[in-house]
C-alpha cells in the first residue's frame, strides 16, 4: 500500500472523526475491523484536558496541540504534524456546537446567534485557508441550519467558497448509516479543485420521529437491543446509574419508548404533567426495537434516554437506570475497547459531543473515494481499498 494520507484534526474532542478517518477503509459495522490505514491523523487539537487524555489513550502516537484554537497559529499545527501547506489530504473537525444547539436556546444570546464561540467557525476557515488541504469535512449540530443561525451558515459557506472549495452541506441521520441512534448532524464538505462533492447514500432505513417512510430496499435501522447484544450482565446497578429522587417513581412507570407524556391526561400513567410542557427527552425511556434518540452531552438528572429495563434499589424500590458507558459506546458505534478518560460527566460530555464512528466513516470514505485516492471492491465480503 502507498504512503498513508495525512489528516489534520481540529476540535478533536473524544476523537470520533479521528477514529472514523483511521478506520475509513474498514468494513462498515464490523467494530473489530480497524482497516488498512489508508489515512493517518497527523495532528489532533483540542483545549479540553479530559478530551486530550482520551486522545492520548486511544491515539498514542498522534501528535497533539493543546489550547484555544483562536490562539494557536496554523503554522504550529502544521509543524506538529510535520506537514507544509498544501500537503494535508483532509482537514476534519466539529467546532463546539453549543452556540447552535437547541439546549442553549433558553439563553437570549444563543437564540439570536450572538454567542462569541460562534467565531470558532471562522477559525476553522482560517486553518483551511492556511493549510490548503485537498478537501475538508466539517460537522456540527443541525441547529446551525435553522433560520436563527442561518447567517452563520451562509457566512461559513461564503468564506469557504471564496477559497475555491465549492462547499456543499447536508443534514445526515446517523441511523441511516448503521448507527443505532437517531442523531441528526449537518456536514459541510468541499474540495480544493472546486469540483462538487457528493454525500454518501444512506445504507439503512427505518422509522424516526420525523419520517415514517421506510425504504424496504435498504437494511433496517439498527435497534438499541441489537446494539447492546453481547454486553456483560451486571447484577446490581451502580448508585450513579439509578434514576431516583423527585421523579424517580414516575420514571420507573414509563413504558419503553415513552417519556413524561405518559403521565399526562392523554396516556395511561398518572396525570402529573401538562401536555407538551417539557422537553421531549424529559424522563424518556429507550425502546429496545428502535434506535436511541440523540445522546446529549450535558443532560440534567431527568433527561433521558434511560434504559428500558428497571432496577431494584437497596431498599427494594423499582427505578429506571441511566445508560452505562459500554452501552453509550455501542450507541455511538464506537469500538468496545475505546477508552474514555475522566469522570462520568466527562465521559457523557465527550461522547455526547462526538461524531458516531460509522457516520464519520461513511462521509470520510465517500470524500476520499471522490478524491481518487482509493477504489472499492468487495471480495468475499471484505471491503478493500487499493
Annotation keywords:
single chain; 386 residues; alpha/beta; Rossmann fold; 2 domains; 7-stranded mixed β-sheet; 3-stranded antiparallel β-sheet; 11 helices; 17% strand; globular; disordered C terminus
Model description:
The protein is an alpha/beta fold and 386 residues long. The protein folds into two domains: 5-221 and 331-385, Vaccinia Virus protein VP39 (Rossmann fold); 235-323, no CATH class. The protein has helices at residues 16-22, 49-58, 74-81, 108-111, 120-131, 150-162, 224-228, 248-253, 325-331, 344-353, 357-370; strands at 5-10, 39-46, 64-66, 90-93, 135-141, 168-173, 181-182, 184-191, 204-205, 219-220, 242-243, 292-293, 310-312, 318-321, 376-379, 382-385. The strands form five sheets. The protein has a seven-stranded mixed sheet with strand order 3-2-1-4-5-8-6, with helices on both faces. The protein starts with a strand and ends with a strand. Mean pLDDT is 90; it is low at 101-114 and 375-386.
What topology does this entry show?
Layout: E1 5-10, H1 16-22, E2 39-46, H2 49-58, E3 64-66, H3 74-81, E4 90-93, H4 108-111, H5 120-131, E5 135-141, H6 150-162, E6 168-173, E7 181-182, E8 184-191, E9 204-205, E10 219-220, H7 224-228, E11 242-243, H8 248-253, E12 292-293, E13 310-312, E14 318-321, H9 325-331, H10 344-353, H11 357-370, E15 376-379, E16 382-385
Parallel strand pairs: 1-2, 1-4, 2-3, 4-5, 7-12, 9-10
Antiparallel strand pairs: 5-8, 6-8, 11-14, 13-14, 15-16
Helix pairs in contact: 1-11, 5-6
Amino acid at each position: 500500500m502507498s504512503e498513508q494520507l495525512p489528516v489534520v484534526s481540529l476540535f478533536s474532542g473524544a476523537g470520533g472523526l479521528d477514529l472514523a478517518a483511521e478506520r475509513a477503509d474498514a468494513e462498515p459495522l464490523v467494530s473489530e475491523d480497524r482497516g488498512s490505514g489508508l489515512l493517518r491523523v497527523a495532528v489532533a487539537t483540542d483545549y479540553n484536558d479530559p478530551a486530550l487524555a482520551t486522545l492520548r489513550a486511544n491515539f498514542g502516537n498522534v501528535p497533539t496541540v493543546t489550547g484555544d484554537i483562536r490562539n494557536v497559529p496554523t503554522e504550529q499545527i502544521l509543524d506538529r504534524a510535520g506537514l507544509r501547506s498544501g500537503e494535508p489530504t483532509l482537514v476534519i473537525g466539529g467546532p463546539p456546537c453549543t452556540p447552535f444547539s437547541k439546549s442553549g436556546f433558553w439563553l437570549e444570546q444563543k437564540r439570536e446567534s450572538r454567542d462569541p464561540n460562534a467565531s470558532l467557525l471562522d477559525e476553522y476557515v482560517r486553518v483551511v485557508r492556511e493549510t490548503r488541504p485537498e478537501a475538508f469535512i466539517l460537522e456540527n449540530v443541525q441547529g446551525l441550519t435553522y433560520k436563527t443561525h442561518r447567517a452563520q451558515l451562509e457566512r461559513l459557506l461564503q468564506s469557504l467558497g471564496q477559497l475555491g472549495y465549492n462547499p456543499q452541506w447536508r443534514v445526515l441521520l446517523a441511523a441511516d448509516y448503521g448507527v443505532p441512534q437517531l442523531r441528526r448532524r449537518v456536514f459541510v464538505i468541499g474540495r480544493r479543485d472546486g469540483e462538487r462533492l457528493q454525500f454518501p447514500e444512506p445504507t439503512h432505513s427505518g422509522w424516526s420521529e420525523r419520517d415514517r417512510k421506510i425504504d424496504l430496499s435498504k437494511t433496517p435501522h439498527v435497534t438499541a437491543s441489537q446494539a447492546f447484544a453481547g454486553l456483560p450482565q451486571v447484577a446490581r446497578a451502580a448508585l450513579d446509574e439509578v434514576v431516583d429522587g423527585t421523579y424517580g417513581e414516575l420514571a420507573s412507570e414509563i413504558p419503553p419508548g415513552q417519556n413524561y407524556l405518559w403521565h399526562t391526561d392523554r396516556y395511561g400513567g398518572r396525570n402529573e404533567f401538562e401536555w407538551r410542557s417539557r422537553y421531549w427527552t424529559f424522563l424518556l425511556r429507550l425502546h429496545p426495537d428502535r434506535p436511541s434518540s440523540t445522546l446529549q452531552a450535558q443532560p440534567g438528572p431527568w433527561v433521558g434516554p434511560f434504559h428500558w429495563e428497571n432496577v431494584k434499589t437497596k431498599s427494594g424500590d423499582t427505578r429506571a437506570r441511566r445508560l452505562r458507558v459500554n452501552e453509550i459506546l455501542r450507541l455511538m458505534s464506537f469500538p468496545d475497547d475505546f477508552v474514555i478518560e475522566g469522570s462520568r460527566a466527562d465521559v457523557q460530555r465527550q461522547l455526547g459531543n462526538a461524531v458516531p464512528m460509522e457516520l464519520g466513516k461513511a462521509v470520510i470514505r465517500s470524500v476520499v473515494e471522490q478524491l481518487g485516492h482509493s477504489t472499492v471492491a468487495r471480495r468475499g465480503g471484505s471491503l478493500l481499498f487499493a
